[in-house]
Amino acid sequence: MPQHLVAALSKPPPERVGEGWADNHVYVQSNLMAPAVATASVVAAALADPLVPLVWRRSLIEVLCMLCYGEQDDIADACQRAVRGCVWSLYEEIASGRGLDAASYAFELLLCFPDERERLVYFQERYRAHLATDLHAQNFDVHTIDG
Fold it and tell me: φ and ψ at 34, to 5 degrees?
C-alpha cells in the first residue's frame, strides 16, 4: 500500500477519493479491509510531510474519515488510534484556510475523539469561515455527537 500511495502522490488526486491506492484495496464502500489500520498510519504520516503536495490534503483526510468511520468497529477503532497522533495536523488544516473541503473533513475526523470536543468548539467558532456552513455552531452542536 505505501508504494501505491507514494506513486499516486506524484500525480494529481483522482476524481474519486482513494482511487488507485485505497479504494477497493483498503475499503470497499464503507467496509474496511485488512490493510486499513496500516494505511491509516501511512496517510496520517503523509499529512505531516511537507513534501506531500497540498492539493492532496483533502483526499488524504477524506480517506482517513472513511477509515475511522468504517462499518467494522474494531478496525475503525484501530484506525482512530493510528490517526490520534496527527490531530495537530488536522487542526492546522482547519486553521490554515487553504481549502474548505479539507478543513471540513479535518473537523469531522476530529469528532471521533471525544476529548477534543472543547478545542473543536473553539476552532468551530474561531475558524468559522474555513468550515462548510453545515459545521457552523448554529447548525451543528459538537457536544451532541457520539464519539
Answer: -50, -45
68 closest CA partner among 85, 56, 50? 85
Q: What is the mean pLDDT of residues 84-111?
A: 96
d(CA 120, CA 34): 31
User: What radius of gyration do the chain's Cα atoms show?
Assistant: 15
- How far apart are the C-alpha atoms of 49 and 43, rounded to whole Å? 10
Judge if pTM exceeds 0.70.
Answer: yes
| φ and ψ at residue 92, rounded to 5 degrees | -60, -35
Please provide residue 5's backbone torsions phi and psi, each rounded to the nearest 5 degrees.
Answer: -65, -45
Phi, psi (deg, nearest 5) at residue 62: -65, -40
> pLDDT above 90 covers what percent of the chain?
70
Rounded Cα gap, residues 132 and 112, in angstroms? 18
**Largest distance between two CA atoms of the chain:** 43
pLDDT in tens, 59-87: 999 999 999 999 999 999 999 999 999 99
User: What angle (nearest 5°) sits at the alpha carbon of residue 47, between those of residues 25 and 14?
Assistant: 45
Q: What is the DSSP letter of 112?
A: T
